[in-house]
Design a protein that fits this description.
By secondary structure, the chain is of the alpha/beta class. The protein has 15 helices and 8 strands. It is globular and about 65 Å long. The termini are far apart.
Amino acid sequence: MQNCSLVLIASLLLISGCSSEPTTDSIAQSDKPNSDSPAGREEYADAHKGDEPAGSPSSEGTDAPAKSASQRPVADPLLAGVEFPNVDIHSIFSKYRSAYEASPENPAAVFGYLQLCHQLGVHFGMEGDISRSHLASMRAGEILQKAIDAKIEFPAGVSLAGDILFRYSTALAADGKQDLAMSALRSAIENGFTELSALSTAPELKALRESAEFKESLPQWSTTIKESLKEEVEALLASHEPFPFDFTLKDVSTLKPLALDDFKGKVCIVDIWGTWCGPCRKEIPSFVRLQDKFGEAGFQMIGLNQENSGDEATNMVTVREVISSDGINYPCALIDSKTLKQVPDFQGYPTTLFIDTQGRVRLKLVGLHQFEFLESAVELLLAEGQAKSEPESSATE
C-alpha cells in the first residue's frame, strides 16, 4: 500500500477480486465486488476524490514519509498499536475523524469517516483481530445510525449501508447487547443487506438466533432479501449488452474436448478463475451448490482456468488437485488467449459469465459474489428460457 491517497488505501484494503495477472495476493472489499487491477484502483481513486472531506489528507500528504510516534496525534483506541507499512494511518484516521467531528452533518465528512471505520473493521476481521474488528464495526454502525436518524443523504456508498449495519449488529451481539443487535439487524435488512446465509452462520448471532423474535422475523427477512436480489439481478440483466461467447478446450479431468456447444439450450455459468486466486477459491462452494441444485433443471456450471505455470501438463495436474480437494462437481478446462479475448474489458479474477439458453452472455461480473445473488441470476435465466420454450412447444403440437 505504498504511495496512495486515503481513498485509494481504503479501496486497496477491501478489494475482493484478483489482479489480471496470477498472484497469491488477495485483499477483501467493502464496495461492490471489483477486480484488483491497477487500472481499477486508479479509477476508484479518481472517481472518489471529490468525496474526501475538508481537512482530509491528499494523495501528496500520504506519499510523505511516515511520521514518528512522537509526531503523530494521540492514537485512537481503535488503532492502538496498529501500523501499516509506508502509510501513516494514525494521522489519516485523525484527519477523517476530526473532519467528521467538526461537521457531523456534512455528507462527505460523514461518509469518509464511516467508510474508513467500516473498511478497517473488515480488514481487522480478515487479520483475525476480532475484538478490534468489532470495535471498528461498532464505530461505523453508530456513525451510520446517526446519519440515518438525521436523514443525511450520501453522494455515494448507499449500497454499503446494509453491510455496515449487519456488522454493527454482530458487534452489538458480541458485546451482549441482544436487543440493540436485533434492532440493528432489522435496519440492515431494511437498508439492503442481502447475504441471507450470514443470518444463519454468523457466530456472534448464535444467541440471537435462539430468540423468538429472530425466529418469527426470519421468514419475512428471507422473502425481503430474495425479492431485493431478484430486482437487482433483473436490473443488471436489462442494462447489460449481450455478447457472443464460444470455446472448445480440453477437459482437465477427461482430456476430452469441452465445448460450450455441448450445453446448448442450457443456462450456463462460466467461471474464469485460477487456483492461485483466493476469492476464486472462496466462490467454489457456491458454484458447487448451484450445480447440485439446478443441474437437473437445465443448468450447467463450467470452470475455465488461468494458471501460473507455462506448462500445460503441470497446470492440468494443479487444477485436477483442486477439483479433488474442493469437491468441484463440474468440468474445468485451461483457458486460452483466444477464448479470453472474447470477454470485453476483461478486468480480473474471478470473472463470471452468465449465459442464457440462446448461448448469449447476458451478464458479466467481476469478483466474489454471494450464493444467493448467483442463485437469483440462475433462477431468472432458467425461468426466461422456460417461458421462451413453451410457445415453441405449443406451436409444434
